[in-house]
Amino acid sequence: MIYNPLQQRICIGEISSTDLFRTIPSPKLNNVKGWWQRQQHRQDIRLYAFIKDVIDKGFIDPIIVWYSDDRKEFSLHPGMNRVMLNRVLGFPMKAWVISYDIKTYRRLGKVFPGITKLKLDPSGNRDIPMTAQHRTDNRLYEIVFGNDKILPTMRNAENDAEWHQAQQRAGFYVWCGGEFIGKIGSPTNLDHWDVRDVSGIYELALKYFFDYGVENAFIHRRTT
């Protein structure tokens, strides 16, 4: 067996999401019904605690783009929901691009203009803890960063109480493509909305639960 260290090496660079999406298409989550069904046991986190944390602190953890230069393919994980929320907020957000088959930062910079190397410690080193997660909807393991904020950690007594109060005072009905998706909180008969995609649900949560000024870019009021 011949040991090839390149098989265990990855090229990582940091780039703003604005520059990133000039190079690759901005992802969309159009399967609103599927997303909604997956969030039934964590609506409190997705539509309140997560949004509250971002409003208070901005986007702390970078989104991760896994890129194959050989196949010219990419995937985004974790960070898809951050992208959906940020399409409404427009906050500064960083991305890390990771590639197993790009061997030099010169090449990485040509593919992703504006990308920079990660900052190192004074000795020129850096440790990045990574872990493998097994999810119930996939037989394979997914590699993610060990210090990435995990949503269940946002579930605490303060957020639970605030979420309970928010649902008592406001709410909305969600429709997409002429199909009723679901109800959240305590909506009135005037609170029926069509959403373009999952960003529309985040826009509604900002509008109703945070009184956050939105532009109705991903929603429009349903009249019939």
Q: Unreliable segments (pLDDT under 50, ≥5 consecutive)?
A: none
Strand order of the largest sheet: 3-2-4-1-5
Give the count of structural domains: 2
Helix content: 25-40%
Which SSEs are present, and which pair or pack?
Blueprint (H helix, E strand, L loop, with lengths): L10 E6 H7 L8 H7 L4 H15 L5 E6 L4 E4 L3 H10 L4 E6 L5 H7 L4 E2 L12 E5 L6 E5 L11 H13 L1 E6 L2 E7 L6 E4 L2 H12 L9 E3 L3
Parallel strand pairs: 2-4, 8-10
Antiparallel strand pairs: 1-4, 1-5, 2-3, 6-7, 8-9, 10-11
Helix pairs in contact: 4-7
Q: In short, what is this structure?
A:
The chain has 224 residues and is α+β, with helices and mostly antiparallel strands. It has helices spanning 17-23, 32-38, 43-57, 80-89, 105-111, 157-169, 198-209, and strands at residues 11-16, 63-68, 73-76, 94-99, 116-117, 130-134, 141-145, 171-176, 179-185, 192-195, 219-221. Strand 2 and strand 3 (73-76) form a beta hairpin.
